[in-house]
Amino acid sequence: MKSLNFDFLQRIKITGLLTLASLVVLSGCQGGGGEDEILIGHFGSMTGSEATFGTSTDHGIKMAVEELNASGGLLGKKVRLITYDDKGDAREAGTAVTRLVTKDGVAAVIGEVASGLSLAGAPICQENSVPMVSPSSTNPKVTKIGDMIFRVCFIDPFQGTVCAKFAREHEGLTASKAAILTDQASPYSVGLQEEFEKAFVAMGGTVVTKQTYQAGDQDFSAQLTSIRGSEPDVVFIPGYYTDAGNIALQARKLGLTVPLLGGDGWDSVKLGEIAGEAMDGCFYSNHYSQDDPAPRVQEFIKKYTELHKQTPDALAALGYDTARVVFEAIQRAGSTDGPAIAAELAKTKDFDGVTGKISIDAERNAIKPAVILEMQGGKPKFVTTIAP
Amino acid sequence: MVGTVSLSTKNREQKSELRTGNALLGLLPIAAGLGIATLMHFFLPGLIGQFYARIVTDIGITIVLAVSLNIVNGMTGQFSIGHAGFMTLGGYTAATITYYGSMFLWDSAGKHGGFLGSGEWLFIASCVAGGLFAAFAGYIVGLPSLRLRGDYLAIVTLGFGEIVRVILQQTGKTIDDVEDFKNAGWAQLIPPPVGGAVGFDGVPKYTNLFWVYAVLTITIVVAYRLKGSSLGRAMISVREDEIAAQAMGVNISRQKVLAFVMAAFFAGVAGGLFAHERGVIISPKDAGFQRSFDYVIMTVLGGRGSITGVTLAAVLLTALPEMLRDFEQYRLIVYALLLIFMMLVRPQGLLGIHEIWNFWQRPKSSVKSASPEAQV
Question: How far is CA B345 from the centre of its chain?
Answer without folding.
Answer: 28
